[in-house]
Amino acid sequence: MNYQELADRVLAGGRIAREEGRAVLASPEEDLLALLDAAFRVRRRHWGKAVQIHYLINAKSGLCPEDCAYCSQSAVSEAAVPRYGLVDEEALLQGAARAAEAGSRRYCIVMSGRGPADHEIDRLCAAVGLIRARHGLSICCSLGLLDGAKARRLKAAGVERLNHNLNTSEGFYGRICSTHTYTDRLETLAAGRSAGLELCSGVIFGQGEGEGDILDVCEALRELAPESVPVNFLHPIPGTPLERLAHLGPRRCLRLLCLMRFYNPASEIRVAGGREVQLRGLQPLALYPANSIFVEGYLTTPGQGAAEAHRMIKDLGFEVDGRGRSEAAKKEGVAHIR
Ligand code: SF4
């Protein structure tokens, strides 16, 4: 397969075909650098060599009635995770200060649960203005299922982006969750979009899905066109239903990131949860297709510290960028097309 021809077509506004997606997934080991190089050309057009750093706070932990199989906070998880209700304003502000110190442009406020209650939305909206005023951070909320009224309140309070992952294909969704549906998730995303929120929506690879599911969710995300696509690799946590699933392996993870770049050429693609445990020593290579990472850990698992992440980025010859796509692309002297 000629990966550069694929990159040329994608850069010209064309699409990756499903058979090409299959070929990327099945690419031979000796092609890995050529594949990364082609994906990097696409990434560089839109994002230069900038890496966006994201920092998240688990603002409400455990206590969830849903049964998402990958999640340590679910009703069916036996993992020992902290359990607490929505943290107070001071804790949200302290988290924002840590995000700013870590070089993050964006602060992701995540709550466990099926969806937020009105009183939780009240408290979040009150905190958002203070966080923006003190730290100038963009704010993303990940709160579970939302209706239009709640999404509009978040937008009015100054939330910029809504995270709600598709997680997997429509066909596989029933295998990882029975308490809500793929359609519920699409409706939440539609509510966010209608409210004027940017969308962050991605996947968790490594849940036992087949190749067809991988391509289906990539195609669904292409149609959704989220501004940001977090690509998580399952971190099988003891006590969760998926605890025994084998790791994907670092080179498979790199192919999946390249695939997502070809499907969503202009989106911010974040190598998200599972980065450290699944990519191991190949983590720096993930920044050729991806342009964004989390630092200082995930919801219930630790991750790479900010200083180490900054060093990794610098060692690659890339740079931490808190300014977003337009500025980064301008610096590279290239136009972004979306
Ligand atoms: S992913 Fe969210 S909704 Fe699903 S079990 Fe975990 S906290 Fe609950």
Helical content band: 40-55%
What CATH first level would be assigned?
Answer: Alpha Beta
Q: How many structural domains?
A: 1
Q: First CA to last CA: what distance? A: 27 Å
Rounded Rg: 19 Å
Principal-axis shape: globular
Number of helices: 13
Q: Specify the structural class.
A: alpha/beta
Quick description:
The chain is an alpha/beta fold and 338 residues long. The protein has one domain: Alpha-Beta Barrel (TIM Barrel), CATH 3.20.20. The chain contains 13 helices and ten strands.
Please provide a written account of the structure.
This protein is α/β, with parallel strands linked by helices. Helix content is 42%, strand content 14%. The chain has one domain: Alpha-Beta Barrel (TIM Barrel). The chain is built from 13 helices and ten strands. Strand 3, helix 6 and strand 4 form a beta-alpha-beta unit. The chain is globular and about 55 Å long. The site of iron/sulfur cluster has 10 residues, from loops.
